[in-house]
Specification:
heterodimer; A: about 270 residues; mainly beta; seven-stranded mixed beta sheet; five-stranded antiparallel beta sheet; elongated; B: about 180 residues; mainly alpha; Arp2/3 complex 21 kDa subunit ARPC3; 7 helices
């Protein structure tokens, strides 16, 4: 076969590969929709979310999900083996901090109110990009780190029997606490996948701050039991969902409650 | 042509290929662009692969570069599954070798460079997905991103190969490397 024909054949094979891949992607997207053939329902999240001690579905554990597990014990006074209970809360909107010509830039305002909080509660962020569907989380140490920590004075509860530790892998399926009750436990709408294929990436897009002007976030270690913080986003990858991780370092009493109210706020 | 009893690669060729293998690792590990697109790093990774194959012009040159780059990535990589990187780079090198043999090692031709970079990048992507699948990531989850990822790997890998072909062509014109495998 002459040189030119080989070139044309090779280009045709490359294009064929890309076309087949796009076809596979469309097929896979169809497979992930509901069995009825209708579009898969997005996990339903409300603007106002009320949580109790029973909503901490994971733990006790000293780490949170990432490509390599991230320690939850980053405060100076906590020991490395201190264990936490985790609650994943899906927010009803996503921040965007990329090119304003492409999408509306906004941050998410989160008003929170703890009642009868025992010990320390810490907020972290998780999110997923649209394509490829890899996850993002807030950086907790080093440049660009952010976090929000609240301390309560209520006596600790007895135990949290509903909680079980997460698997220590970089692809983990977690149930979000605020979509429970929508159907059977195994419905897709009640779970989200957190996938971090590469260590070192996925930690610079999501941030927590008390001032939306600080787009890279800040660490607040002594926040009041009631207040407001903002979820900000930097970078160009748009997010399909945002999930708030609430971690508490001891069993919560029966009368514990956390009220969250979220609103999108236009960013400058 | 190699003389019976002598090494397949000369000392000079081994040195060039080893250097290119090291550059593959460095390009992947230390050059970061904030493009947020899968496969964009292969814009840089494809260059030493194709340049090495263009300089040496022997079957197995790509495999050698992939082996060196893959071993370095496996031992010193930063990613979660870096121990298995050797398979990715080896597959990319073998693919570029196949492209080289198919096109008589004409890596100075921009179209051949593009094909080599794009094909190598796509095969590396497939091996990467296969590794994730074998380690338990659900196939549906992988396939959801495969369309966009294939296109970006094709474009970035191909562009890297194209740049490498232009470099090779310039080196040949300048007489730094011969066009009949004399160096």
């Amino acid at each position: 076969m002459e040189f030119k024909k080989r070139l044309i054949t090779a280009f045709a094979l490359l294009i064929l590969f890309a076309v087949i891949s796009i076809g596979l992607q469309i097929y896979a997207e169809g497979e992930t929709m509901s069995a009825t053939g209708e579009a898969a329902p997005s996990p339903l999240a409300q603007s106002v979310i009320n949580l109790t001690a029973a909503d901490f579905l994971y733990g006790p554990q000293a780490w949170r999900p990432y490509a390599v597990p991230l320690s939850l014990n980053t405060l100076p006074e906590t020991t490395e083996d201190h264990e936490w209970y985790l609650c994943f809360v899906l927010l009803n909107d996503t921040p965007y901090g990329g090119n304003p010509a492409l999408f509306k830039r906004q941050v998410i305002s989160v008003n929170y109110t703890f009642e009868n909080l025992a010990g320390t509660a810490a907020f972290y962020l998780y999110g997923s990009t649209i394509l490829p569907p890899t996850s993002r989380t807030s950086r907790q140490e080093g440049y660009g780190s952010s976090g929000y920590i609240v301390t309560g004075t209520a006596p600790a509860g007895d135990a949290m029997p509903q909680a079980a530790p997460l698997e220590r892998i970089n692809l983990v399926s977690v149930r979000v606490a605020n979509t429970r009750g929508l159907g059977p436990d195994d419905i897709a709408a009640g779970t989200i996948e957190l996938w971090f294929p590469n260590e070192g990436s996925g930690q610079d897009a999501l941030h927590i701050t008390t001032n939306p002007e600080y787009r890279k976030g800040e660490i607040v270690a002594d926040a009041p039991s009631s207040g407001r913080f903002y979820v900000t986003h930097t970078g160009g990858s748009r997010l399909s969902l945002i999930c708030l991780l609430v971690a508490v370092d001891r069993p919560q009493p029966e009368d514990f409650s956390l009220r969250l109210e979220t609103h999108p706020v236009e960013a400058t | 042509m190699t003389t019976p009893g002598r090494a397949y690669f000369t000392l000079y060729e081994t040195a060039v290929l080893s250097l290119c293998g090291a550059l593959v690792f460095l390009a992947k590990a230390f050059i970061n662009l904030s493009l947020h697109l899968p496969g964009h790093s292969y814009l840089f990774v494809a260059i030493p692969f194709v340049v090495g194959c263009g300089v040496v012009r022997k079957a197995g040159a790509g495999t050698y570069i992939g082996l060196i780059g893959g071993l370095l990535a496996s031992f010193f990589g930063f990613e979660a599954l870096h121990l298995l990187d050797v398979f990715k780079y080896l597959a990319m090198g073998i693919t570029i070798d196949i492209v080289g043999v198919t096109f008589s090692h004409r890596f100075d031709h921009p179209a051949v460079g593009f094909i080599a970079g794009a094909a190598g990048s796509l095969v590396k992507m497939v091996v990467n997905y296969a590794v994730h699948y074998l380690l338990g990531v659900p196939a549906t989850f992988i396939l959801i991103g495969i369309g966009l990822t294939s296109v970006t790997h094709l474009i970035f890998g191909g562009t890297g190969g194209l740049i490498a072909a232009l470099i090779i062509a310039r080196l040949i014109r300048a007489g730094v490397i011969g066009d009949d495998n004399t160096t």
